[in-house]
Amino acid sequence: MKHDPLGLHVALGEGALLLTPLLEQHRNALRAACAEDPAIWPIYAVSYDPEHFDAAFDALMANPARLPYAIFVDGELTGMTAWIDADPARRSVEIGNTYIRPKFRGGGINGVMKRLLFVHGFACGLKRIYLSVDTRNERSQAACLKVGATFEGVLRNHRITWTGHDRDSAIFSVVERDRERLGL
Predict the structure, then answer these.
(1) Under 8 Å CB-to-CB from 119, ≥6 apart: which residues?
(2) pLDDT in tens, 126-183
(3) Structural domain 12-129, CATH architecture
């Protein structure tokens, strides 16, 4: 069990959607899901393509700063997401490491998932929840805006990706005072 001082890493669900803490038993289904879109991994910080999947999964599971979820829709593994770098002193956290299988994109799953995470995060005492997206990933940036996150700016050369690319990251956030505006 990972250290979770804010109590963030619990199962969450609404309707057909279930977020459950990611476990070793999800490895094979997640590997297959991540293999469905090999073209996406070059714009991700870490690759979960077939060649890199096991090393990336092992690193994710071993990383104490990441609290990952398996995403299920109607019992079918649909992808993953994670709480990243939860900071109890600042009462902030990042949502990231998100991948949704192609056939589930655009159908509202991301919006329901993010809403569940936002509501739960604020219920756990968070003041700030943010998302960090590679500026090349226009679909994910649009998804951040669609869920009501505010674009804050770009962190230049924010990180080096698995391909060696110097990533600029677009930063989006939802803060506690946004709750009423977003109906959270």
Answers:
(1) 184
(2) 999 999 999 999 999 999 999 999 999 999 999 999 999 999 999 999 999 999 999 9
(3) 3-Layer(aba) Sandwich (3.40)
Contact 21, 68 (CB under 8 A): yes
Where are the domains positioned within the chain? 12-129
Measure the CA–CA gap between 44 and 82, rounded to whole angstroms: 14
Strand partners, 69: 21, 81
Over its C-alpha atoms, the chain yields an Rg (Å, rounded) of 15
Q: In what helix (H) or strand (E) does residue 87 lie, and over which residues does it extend?
A: strand 76-87
Single pTM value for the model: 0.95
- DSSP element (H, E) containing 67: strand 66-73
Q: What is the dihedral of CA 46, 49, 52, 58, to 10 degrees?
A: 70
Please list, in sequence order, all residues whose beta carbon lies within 8 angstroms of the beta carbon of residue 48, skipping any fewer than 6 positions away. Answer: 30, 31, 34, 41, 56, 57, 99
